Amino acid sequence: MTLRKILTTSAAAGLMAVAGFAGSAFADIKVGFIGSLSSDTGLSTLRGAEMAIEELNAAGGMNGEKIVLVTADTQEDVTEGVKAYEYLAETEKADFIISGSIDDVSLGWMPRMQEYQIPTLDTWTSSISIIDMVVKDPELMAPYFMNIASDEALATLYINFGADVLKKKMGWDSVVILAEDTAFGQAITGLVTEAISPVAGIEVKDTIVYDVGTVDFAPIFSKAQATGADFIYQVSSVNSQVISSQYVKLQVPMPMTGVNVSALGMEYWEDTGGAGGGISTLSPVPSVGFKLDPVSADFVKRYQAKYTSRPKMPHFNGFNAYYGLKQAMAAAAEVGGFKDAKKWSKAMEKQDLVLKLDGKMSLRYGFWGKDEVEPVTKRTYPHNARFDLTAPYDDAQPSMVVVQWKEDGSVGVVYPFEFATTEFTVPSWIKK
After folding, report:
1. 237 assigned to some structural domain
2. Do 317 and 183 belong together in one domain?
3. For the chain, what is the domain count?
4. 118 plus 40 within the same structural domain
5. Which residues have a Cβ under 8 Å from the Cβ of 167 and sit 6 or more positions away?
């Protein structure tokens, strides 16, 4: 059973397809959410899962069984994340776990997933090291799936942005990297450093690592300027609105791009006090400023009618949770539940949902097979979300887009050009 038809016909008809044997009364299916209960990232996954569960239950549940949701708060802390996974496994006896965890936290509880063998879907974490675990030990990692492109794929396409826009269009030849001291920061920095010079022809002048608790970035920006680099590449997933607003308020005379998680949400402008203009960031899809297909646009409309607190638009992982949980249930319906993790895994591998806009593919929720080799990176990505790294993106959506916030508070996609809704520019205070 797949979800290909679930969201392209009426919602009721599609959901009944997942429900299968609706009407019989069996024990509940328990879904455990693991992630931060106080962050936009965590709430995006939680709410996407809530909406999917409500719709599935309204149509009869999964093979007649009601789906219930329980939560465990990681507080974006590794130790708390391990405790949270243990709680879902041992106390709640979760049948399936959906994660909105950040990279460090998912890496922390990964040994618990391997131990408990509970089917688990990560909707935010993009750590290539986890996909490497699937490559190395597919049996042990069989219950694990990641329905976001891994950071290697994200960085690979961002290198193309460096070549096509930063180097070719803007004429920038050198960069200084400002990266937070996290597993995410280290991963992205390593990938960018190794590829941006040989592929994009941009020299890395220096890499400056800062603590996630930093509140005064003036000395760091001064150090960046002293390198003589043409632009700054920042990597920030924690408290990233701080570096953004200080960059603008200090009017740092260098363009800054990179990965800024706070800029992925519609609250970014408010969080920075309107001091966020000029910031551009890599974003998995769908992003702010991204043209949505009709099904995804309807999801957002219903989301906004249901939730009045932030995030007022789900981050990409909210979409991942909404579609991914339905795929997980469809796979479970096919094999009689989640009890046999390996059987469920085989069924999950076959899930493939294509959403279209104006007759063309907009989003694709499918997974790479264990023996499929991605043609650009020349490697495999088993259980990772399927992505496409080259135009015309007819096999899957790009692994990421680059969005930019303008000084008037608007936001749009600037790359890849096929998905662009605005043009990449530099802040007004920077001399061109």
Report:
1. yes
2. no
3. 2
4. yes
5. 173, 200, 201, 202
* Residue 51: domain span: 11-149+291-366
pLDDT tens for residues 370-409? 999 999 999 999 999 999 999 899 899 999 999 999 999 9
Asked, as a colleague might, if the bond just before 253 is cis with ω within 30 of 0, I would say: no
Residues 265, 40: contact at Cβ < 8 Å? yes
Report if residue 192 sits inside a domain: yes
* 308 class by beta-carbon count within 10 Å (0-12 exposed, 13-18 middle, 19+ buried): exposed
Q: Is 310 found in the same domain as 360?
A: yes
Both 341 and 354 in one domain: the answer is yes
Cα–Cα distance, 178 to 152 (Å, whole number)? 18
With helix as H, strand as E and coil as C, how does 218-237 read? HHHHHHHHHCCCCEEEEEEC
Instruction: Classify residue 88: in a domain, yes or no.
Output: yes
Residue 43 token pair: 């709430």
Q: What is the pTM of this model?
A: 0.87
Contact partners, residue 20, CB within 8 Å, separation at least 6: 1, 60, 62, 63, 64, 333
Looking up tokens 């709430």 gives 43
**Strands in 8-155 per DSSP E:** 29-35, 67-73, 96-99, 120-122, 144-146
DSSP state of 370: T
pLDDT tens track for 174-201: 999 999 998 878 877 887 787 777 788 8
CATH number of the domain bearing residue 215? 3.40.50.2300
The C-alpha atoms of residue 175 and residue 256 are separated, in whole angstroms, by 10
